[in-house]
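Chapter review. Work through the record for Iron-containing alcohol dehydrogenase before attempting the end-of-chapter questions.
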Amino acid sequence: MIYAASRTSKATSSLRNEANATVPLCHTLGGSFDLPHADTHAIVLPHAIHYNADAVADLLKPVTLIFEGDAPGSALWAFANKLGAPLALKDLGLNETDLDRATEVALSKPYWNPREITATGIRALLQDAWSGAAPGTTAE
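Structure tokens for Iron-containing alcohol dehydrogenase:
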């Protein structure tokens, strides 16, 4: 488990600037809805990776391999689930009625992302992260 965590840390840190919408989205959620920083990142990371997976498949391949999954976002989500890590933004106090506003706030502060950031895409990402569902459960 420590090995997997170490490998994941290396893989995700290399993605920070190239492939990961997690940080700006989590800052939006934390700043706008007063959500705890670390738990918000833990919940959103698999969903952001799923969102960007097709755009940077080569960069995300190590995540898929490390967690022995079919896709990087779902493999990381399954690992987090197995560990009992937080999976749902609703458990942090975010209301489902806040998801549209969270989407609007995220879109109002554009940032570089390897995949185009769209309202429907971010809203679907947030819906899955809110409910605790596996990444990609909600159709865009």
